[in-house]
Specification:
The chain is an alpha/beta fold and 223 residues long. It has one domain: Vaccinia Virus protein VP39 (Rossmann fold, 3-Layer(aba) Sandwich), CATH 3.40.50.150. The chain is built from six helices and seven strands; from the N terminus they run ααββαββαβααββ. Strands 3-2-1-4-5-7-6 form a seven-stranded mixed sheet, with helices on both faces. Helix 4 links the parallel strand 4 and strand 5. Helix 4 crosses helix 6. The longest helix has 22 residues. It is globular and about 50 Å long. The two termini are 26 Å apart.
Length: 223
């Protein structure tokens, strides 16, 4: 792992306090997280996770926000997946599932907004339902882009603000309550955030009929 890491410490920025709040929310949720999510996991999410990992390319892949490890069964065989999460309690549950992955998995506790990896060390990056809860999503996405090699591929599965105007306004109104309860924003424009972070968006696939769930594919500049 040391060959992937930066040398020296980085000075923390103003995002640190917000990250602490997010960490505490997910630490509290960890014991019941899989139980609460189980119905949607069976009906929708497992199928979508398979779509995500079918689009992953490269020998070394960064998985941001591994949570409890529900992506592990879908990892491509033969690659190395470096997984990270902000919550130590979530990561402990993921550690118990590492054997479900056909890839070689290494896990780290780390903030997506301040990655400790050297630049250009990953061929691809994946996150599923993560950048809805990163306090500064553009900062986090810029960090991911920095760690990708030229032409590296980013694949995201995210819930976003609905493309239907009426539903989008309702999501805006409800969002403060949802953040307080779950830690996740339900009204982010993640496609625009990916572009703002310097990626080139190559494809966006709407996965439901109301424009909330999207599969987002993007690439770093080729050189």
């Amino acid at each position: 792992m040391t060959e992937l890491l930066r040398k020296g410490a980085r000075r923390p920025g103003g995002h640190v306090a917000a990250a602490r709040i997010t960490r505490s929310r997910y630490d509290r949720a960890a014991p019941v997280y899989d139980i609460v999510e189980a119905p949607l996991e069976r009906v929708r999410y497992r199928r979508w996770r398979a779509l995500v990992w079918d689009r992953v390319r490269g020998r070394r892949v960064l998985e941001v926000g591994v949570g409890t490890g529900r992506n592990f069964p879908f990892h491509p065989p033969g690659c190395e997946v470096i997984g990270l999460d902000l919550s130590r309690r979530m990561l402990r549950r993921a550690e118990a599932r590492v054997g479900m992955s056909p890839a070689r998995v290494r896990l780290n506790i780390m903030d997506a907004q301040d990655l400790s990896f050297r630049s250009g060390v990953f061929d691809g990056a994946v996150a599923t339902f993560v950048f809805c809860s990163v306090p500064d999503p553009v900062r986090g996405l810029k960090e991911v882009r920095r760690t990708l090699a030229p032409g590296g591929r980013l694949v995201l599965l995210e819930h976003v603000r609905s493309s239907r105007p009426g539903l989008g306004r309702i999501m805006d109104l409800v969002n403060p309550l949802m953040v307080r309860i779950t830690g996740a924003n339900i009204n982010r424009d993640t496609v625009s955030n990916v572009t703002r972070a310097g990626f080139r968006v190559t494809r966006v696939t709407e996965l439901d009929s109301v424009g909330i769930f999207r599969l987002i594919e993007a690439e770093t500049p080729a050189g």
